[in-house]
Amino acid sequence: MDVLVALFVGIMGAAMAGVWTRDIMAGTGFDAPAGLLRAREVETGDLMLWHWLAEYGTSVLLIAGSILLLAGAALADRVTLLGVGALLYTSTNSLGWALARPERRSYAIPMGIGLVGGLISALLLLG
What we know:
It is built from four helices and two strands, in the order αββααα. By secondary structure, the chain is mostly helical.
């Protein structure tokens, strides 16, 4: 089961980093006249830096957990569980954003996969 969890969290971590990198490079959803460190979300004016740190931090934990699980490292379960916990939070939080508007509904699919897969992964790691 560790291999399945490792594959899931590795793919989710890489996908999260990929989507955010694509959106940042395209300038999607934020305004950054003063640079990326001061970028603000277009609709709310929220500072994006903290959101990006949470998303990329989650990605790093998931990818690290995947590698550690596959390597059979002693800290693998702890690191992966930390990443899965962050994934559960970011998926739940992002589902609210994705479901708020009809044009964003397609984003709910990967968020739902993150939420359900994260719950299953956590149960398998704890079991």
